[in-house]
Structure prediction request, 688 residues.
Amino acid sequence: MKMDDKQLSTNDSSKTVNEQLAADQIETLSEEQQQQLLEKYDTESNTRRVAGVMRWVIYIGLLSFSLFQLYTAVFVQFTAYIQRTIHLGFGLTFIFLLFPAFKKGRRDKIAFYDYILAIIAAVTGIYWTINYERLVNSMGMINQMDLIVGIIVILLVLEAARRAVGLPIAIIASLFLAYAFFGRVMPDFLAHRGQSVEQIVNLMYFSTDGILGTPISVSATYIFAFLLFGAFLVKTGVGQYFNDLAIAVAGKLVGGPAKVAIFSSALQGTISGSSVANVVTSGSYTIPLMKKLGYKKEFAGAVEAAASTGGQLMPPIMGAAAFLMVEFIGRGITYWDIAKAAAIPALLYFVGIWIMTHFEAKRLGLQGLKEEEMPDRKAILKKIYLLSPIILIIVIMMSGVPVILSALYGIVACIIIGFINKEVTFGIREIIDALVDGARTALAVAAATACAGIIVGVVVKTGLGLSLANSLVDLAGGKIFLTLFFVMIASLVLGMGAPTTANYVITSTIAAPAIITLLAPDVSQALVPMTVLLSAHFFVFYFGIIADITPPVALAAFAASGISGGDPIKTGVNSAKLAIAAFIIPYIIVYSPALLMIDVTIWQVLWVVFTALLGMIAIGAGIIGYWYRPINWLERLIVLASGIAMIYPESFSDFAGLAVFGIMFIIQLMTKDKGNKPNNKKLNTATN
Prediction:
């Protein structure tokens, strides 16, 4: 759920900061440069900008896509096959019209072969509708025409995913198709009886276990509804308001611009599903501010990259993965269960980055923004009503209202707010534009979920998930830590370059079963404890997401370096350090799931949060090497150990960690002047 930076409206409360940057000759990115950066690192933004008749054809077509989705959500619920194939047909058709075959392809003209592919995609999109009665009564038997159509759809999905999502997911899906066909010649631990071309096509397009499976079902319902909600939210001016509110809250604090980046990115994460888009949207002004204050280029870029990536971990949306989790885990789990489980881990993630930027600022002697650089706080607080659609939608979903209805109520709230907010232009044209923007954003999600469906279908049909799980457990010798380490590496690799939705589908299908197999051996899926299921899914989800800031393929970090001018790899390394909580918390969740707030009392939750927050302070000090004064390597190891002990939610580790933390805290207070030689860097001193 990505926001287009061009859609963000600028209001008076943010002009002070922008004008100050210009006055101090701090280089910021123009809208054109931001778009170029998005196109370079975010495949979803690499679209054509055609003019003339085709511009209006595409505009009306995308509007029709949204209207179809709204109609089926509000009035008529089609059968699964028809709903999903029409959704897929819309997605494939407009991907071929909007996304060029190659990155350097023309953006102002549609190639002749893309017209052909778009027409074929549209025809296949209604194939199920035309032949519905025959296909549902065929008992899995398909004729020659069905076989041809199925092959074409599989190829179209792979090509559409390559264009709109990226080459990695298309390669992975292709390898899984090859695995389904060549099962007989695979090594023993991967061998299966193999599937014929007819069986593969039948599985992929004429059943609900492949392309038309759960991932695209969620795309065609929950995800699309929230993409529309995000598009309407942008039109109300809330995107810019996130930035303004962040400056008002954190701008004057120690190392203010870095904390502004963290705060705004956490808010952006409630409506955006792209780490790279978050980086470019908010980083285009937070990174220059951080550099202006005195942060090094690589650190400034790393703060924005780590915070923007964390937006995908942030409830309530979690980059749309929350809705997929509900469907994949099943067992009667609700959306509220997922959002509640994600709350403390997400809090710790952002607190960890906040603390480390604070210690880094103290180490460098950096302050916050001057009063004259701050926006009018009263004016910003008067517009707090702009957040009401987000608050409303959270409250509604907590009350048990169906997810789609919650999104629709949120859209209505956005429309009301749009008319109230006099600082943005909002009318019928903006409502129609929001419908078009939402559909445009949904294209890549449709391709990603359809392609992920191929992977899921092969895993389910061949039993590959169980085979890989057993292999990982055997490789680790049945040891929990080693198994988790191997699953972490697998999730980081599988998550490279994949958007949030596909990322979660792939990692939960391939990597999560290893944890479930280890923690609940010889237990059927229906009897696996919910704590085990949630722990496994959150573990792979976290590591799949932070692949965006983990070198060598750290797209969010690379995008941030494009703004900061820093070294991409160094920016990625710094991002990974700042996101240390994301490398620790998943392990803690598996060992002791209390962080997920399952079967715990309110007092247990408060204690877990208290000790975990102190733990992040200790870890932040250990990573940065500064607390009240610089700390040496031995002190760093001690505070790191105490921090991990406090985050681990067990009584003994909590009290042991607290004792060590207390001793180190007293030592710091008593010796805070020793060796503490601030750099005395002045506010607004430009560096690098």
